[in-house]
Design brief:
Oligomer: single chain
Mean pLDDT: 82
Strand content: 5-15%
Largest sheet: 5 strands, mixed
Number of strands: 13
Distance between the termini: 77 Å
Radius of gyration: 46 Å
Strand order of the largest sheet: 2-4-5-7-6
Number of helices: 21
Shape: elongated
Low-confidence stretches: 486-497, 542-560
């Protein structure tokens, strides 16, 4: 209301002093009140403004119909502009957005002023019974420009000021720079409009553009008001480039004072400044707001990425720890079960119970591996040249005892070329075949289970066939989903977590292959895996090996065999005892130590054929002990070292090999696997040890 009263005083003073009004501010103030305030407050303010307007009209000397017409036109114009703004600019009326600012100008301000001008001047001409003349048309034009400037300048400014808190952090300039820019703009405007020699009005555009680019829309609008005040006073007092305008001789405008005609040019200049500077300012503010949001989202994304990486690292640590902690007791259970089962003189009942303990521990190990493997997700594959038939034999070994107990024939039909090798990830392939073979044995009561290896058009085709119960067609769509069960009732005859085939699908996907199933109830099932495996160089046959190597092997065979000496390094006494009993059954001479430093001292003091090295030990871990053994100056640094550890994750295998170990053997160990590893070490068939640069630096 105070702003409206002040605008009325300014308008009356301008008319009384200069005979004209440059900008009519009152209607823009009322429109802002209607848009910003709540309904009851807005109605109260507009009613008070109507009273103030009527009072000022009475003081000015208006009487009769004109007393009310002017006040009602002002209220009507403000109300119509507010109504159209609500309709086309949205309820938020956020003038920071360029689209809403343009919408306010085109769909609210212009129609409201046009309708008000048409109605007001139409009623006036009807009352006075005067026709529309050229001078009357010029009056309508002047009224339109003056009223439009008021709406475009005042209403957005007040709305922007009401939401000034939203501009914090969106301006590039601080208050010293803003002060300098405002002073610079006022100085340029004063120098431009207080001279009458050159048409330099465009010079004010340059500092205004700087303000629009660097400051907020609110500040830019205030700068426009300051520019209008300085240039308007200068123009009204007869100064400035506007008065250099050469007026055209237009019939019918002879009665219009030249000053009023030149004010039309000034109004166009000011209107052009408003419709240029405010949109530029809002566009720049919107850009800075989007940049700030992008920076905030980038920081949030980086933080989310960091948390995800931390969560992934924590998950990896958790999985590695759980794998280690679960395998350690299983090693004792499975190992002693093997030892008991191989003890001579054991009665049939005790032998059967020992084997059942071993089978139960194998089943628990399979479940633990499936759960951990499922929780790990998809890892990158590490292809190597593989004998696929050998990997298939590894995969079916855990199911061999169950097949023998059922009287099933479990065979491998290898139709691949002799000595053929293919590039594939050993772990992924083994964990693909193992669940399918285990499932085939589980659901087959008689007959056979066959794993057939054959070539395909783009690689290798592996078929796992059984003569079991088959699969119902309704179950096929969800067969490879996690935790899916063919029979999930409490009366089901087969146990399992439902992870096996889900892991099959995951590993096949990692190997870029496809898996399909052909099954009919009562006729068995065939799982078909197609893998695009590139061919690697074939293995060298015995007849193709160098003569010097054969000679050396022949000399070795003629020599008297020595007792293999094996060093077992493990901090857990149960693990050492299991390994010692198994190795002594093979005729090995076993030495036990419980720490990495003791292992280094033992290797340096006496010869060994093989070192079975645990990884996690309290004083010196197995990785550090292996690196130090490889750094010994004598022949001891070439000794065969095999990791015998419960750290069985892929990264654990990589870490062991990088430290200089020849191979990795995961707990729980069994007699067959341990014997195979000892034979490989004695025959020199273990891979060559390599210490990576990262391991040496560590």
């Amino acid at each position: 209301m105070l702003l409206f009263a002040a605008s009325q005083l300014i308008g009356h003073w301008s008319v009384a002093t200069y005979g004209a009004v440059l900008i009519w501010l009152s209607n823009g103030i009322m429109a802002a009140a209607l848009l910003q305030l709540h309904r009851r407050q807005a109605i109260t303010v507009v009613a008070a403004c109507l009273v103030i307007n009527l009072s000022s009209n009475a003081i000015r000397g208006d009487a009769g119909m004109l007393l009310w017409l002017n006040a009602l036109m002002n209220v009507g114009e403000a109300a119509l502009a507010a109504l159209l703004a609500r309709r086309f600019c949205g309820a938020a009326l956020d003038m920071r957005r360029p689209r809403r600012l343009f919408a306010f100008g085109l769909f609210a301000a212009v129609p409201a002023v046009a309708v008000t001008a048409a109605l007001g001047f139409g009623v006036t001409m009807l009352i006075r019974q005067t026709p529309l003349t050229m001078a009357g048309a010029f009056g309508i034009y002047s009224f339109f420009i003056v009223e439009l400037l008021g709406l475009l300048l005042v209403t957005p400014v007040l709305l922007l000021m009401a939401r000034a808190h939203r501009f914090h952090g969106t301006t590039r300039a601080r208050w010293p720079e803003a002060t300098v820019l405002m002073a610079f703009m006022l100085a340029v405007t004063a120098l431009t409009f207080w001279q009458n020699d050159a048409p330099l009005a465009f010079l004010s555009f340059l500092p205004m553009l700087l303000i629009a680019l660097r400051l907020s829309p609110t500040t830019a609008a205030i700068a426009l008001i300051g520019l209008a005040a300085v240039s308007g006073v200068a123009t009204m007092t007869g100064h400035g480039p506007v008065h250099l305008t050469r007026l055209m001789d237009v019939p019918g405008l002879e009665t219009v004072a030249p000053m009023l005609r030149r004010l039309g040019v000034y109004n166009l200049y000011l209107l052009a400044m408003v419709v240029t500077i405010l949109p530029v300012s809002t566009v720049m503010t919107e850009r800075r707001r989007l940049e700030a949001r992008l920076r905030a989202r980038t920081v949030a994304a980086q933080e989310a990425r960091r948390k995800a990486e931390d969560a992934a690292a924590a998950r990896s640590r958790f999985l590695a720890m759980m794998s280690h902690e679960m395998r350690t007791p299983l090693n004792g259970v499975a190992g002693f079960a093997d030892v008991l089962a191989s003890r001579p003189g054991l009665d049939a009942t005790a032998l059967r119970q020992a084997r059942q303990i071993r089978e139960s521990s194998d089943g628990l190990l399979m479940l633990v591996e499936d759960i951990l493997d499922f929780a790990r997700g998809d890892d990158a594959v590490s292809p190597e040249a593989l004998d696929l038939a050998a990997v298939a034999r590894e995969a079916i070994t855990p199911s061999r005892a169950a097949a023998d107990a059922k009287g099933l024939s479990l065979t491998i039909d290898d139709r691949l070329p002799t000595n053929a090798r293919f590039m594939c990830d050993r772990r992924a392939l083994r964990q693909t075949l193992h669940p399918m073979v285990a499932n085939a044995v589980k659901f087959t009561d008689r007959g056979q289970v066959t794993v057939r290896l054959d070539r395909s058009s783009d690689g290798v085709c592996i078929r796992v066939s059984d003569t079991g119960s088959g699969i119902e067609p309704a179950l096929l769509p969800d067969l490879f989903e996690a935790f899916a069960q063919g029979d999930a009732s409490i009366r089901r005859s087969h146990c399992g977590a439902g992870l096996g085939l889900a892991l099959v699908a995951r590993h096949v996907r990692r190997l870029n292959g496809d898996v399909d199933v052909d099954s009919r109830p009562g006729e068995g099932s065939t799982f078909i895996i197609t893998l695009p495996l590139p061919r690697a160089p074939d293995a060298i046959e015995e007849s193709e090996r160098p003569m010097s190597q054969l000679h050396d092997e022949g000399a070795g065979e003629s020599a008297a065999p020595a007792t293999p000496r094996v060093l077992v390094v493990d901090d857990h006494p149960v693990n050492r005892e299991v390994a010692r009993i198994m190795l002594e059954a093979f005729g090995c001479d076993v030495v036990e130590v419980c720490d990495g430093q003791d292992a280094i001292d033992a290797v340096a003091g006496q010869p060994f054929d093989l070192v079975l090295m645990d990884v996690r030990m309290p004083l010196m871990d197995g990785l550090e002990a292996t690196r130090r053994i490889r750094a010994l100056p004598g022949p001891e640094h070439d000794i065969a070292i095999v990791a015998m550890t419960a750290d069985a994750m892929p990264e654990d295998v990589t870490r062991c090999l990088a430290s200089g170990m020849n191979a990795h053997m995961a707990k729980p160990i069994n007699q067959a696997g341990l014997l195979a590893m000892v034979n490989r070490a004695l025959s020199g068939d273990l891979p060559e040890a390599r210490v990576s640069e990262a391991a040496e630096a560590a």
